[in-house]
Structure formats: structure tokens, C-alpha cells
Task: inverse folding
């Protein structure tokens, strides 16, 4: 896949739930070109540390080689996510 979107979340984070919902709404529009994944920072602290995650929710977009293209903390809108992905597809 050309791009991946990874959500770093935490268990009792309302904003993480909202971000997950936004990403679910975006998936049907880009499912053939973007992989989506999620990590709970409490369950995967080493992954979060390697990615320099300091807040949840954080969404990281990477290209096929794993190079980070964009990072955003907080709850994005579906339009913001789609615009960002379109810029890199």
C-alpha cells in the first residue's frame, strides 16, 4: 500500500474514541491505497517510545518505506484526514 495511517491511543481517552470514529469514516474512501492500524500506548509502550508519542490520540502517516510524512495530535476531522492523504497519494 502506498500509505499507512497509525493511531496511537490509550484506553480511557475520549478523544481517541472520536479519532478512531473519524478514521473509520475515512477508510471506505481510501481502503485500496491506505493501511490503517492502531496501538494502545499502555499495551505497546516500546512502540510508542520509538515513535516519540507524547500525547494521545496521535495519528502518524507513513509512506511505503516507513518514512513519516505527517503527524497530528488531537481529534482531526474527516476532511482534514482526507486532504492530508490526498496530498501524499
Result:
Amino acid at each position: 500500500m502506498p500509505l499507512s495511517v497509525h493511531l496511537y491511543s490509550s484506553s480511557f481517552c475520549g478523544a481517541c474514541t472520536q479519532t478512531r470514529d473519524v478514521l473509520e469514516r475515512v477508510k471506505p474512501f481510501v481502503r485500496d491505497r491506505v493501511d490503517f492500524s492502531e496501538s494502545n500506548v499502555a499495551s505497546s509502550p516500546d512502540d510508542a517510545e520509538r515513535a516519540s508519542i507524547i500525547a494521545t490520540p496521535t495519528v502518524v502517516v507513513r509512506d511505503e518505506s516507513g518514512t513519516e510524512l505527517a503527524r497530528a495530535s488531537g481529534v482531526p476531522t474527516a476532511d482534514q484526514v482526507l486532504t492530508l492523504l490526498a496530498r501524499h497519494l
In short: The radius of gyration is 12 Å. The domain at 3-88 is CATH 3.40.30.10 (Glutaredoxin). Strands lie at 3-9, 34-40, 58-63, 68-73.
